[in-house]
Specification:
166 residues; alpha/beta; Rossmann fold; 4-stranded parallel beta sheet; 7 helices; 4 strands; globular
Length: 166
Amino acid sequence: MLHPASEGAGQGLAGRPVRGPGPGADRAGHRVVLTGSASERDLVARVAYRAGLPTAAVLAGRTDLAQLAALIAGARLVVSGGHRGGASGHRLPTPSVVLFGPVPPARWGPPPERRRHRALWAGARAWPEWDGVGDHPTMVALGVDEVLAAVDEVERVVRVDRAVAA
């Protein structure tokens, strides 16, 4: 599950370059869905298009809170930019990777000891003044490779946890 938007300006993933999982994920048996609010539907549809995902994968504006919670609970992994859909996801057992913009993960993110949840943040560096238009520099600084590496890391933790529990 990918939640590319965020209620905070400049904190979502919608303006970011998108690479994978795309059609390859479907072929591997993974159903990828994108969530968001009704007002974010067009933006989320653009993300799906750039990722090579079908329009049926766009659930933005088509779920209520209970349905969103069910999607998160049933997802193999949640990737989210900002607060909605992910920042509180660490309270659920579903593994997550959450990208943080100007707000540090220490405020809303998963505690570091929760290894099934990974917060990415580039905010500790010095940044130029932001005019509030477009993506915040702290979001732009997080590269696609860094996000995919975090996804791999979380999936590895989940596999190890399952093996230990077996």
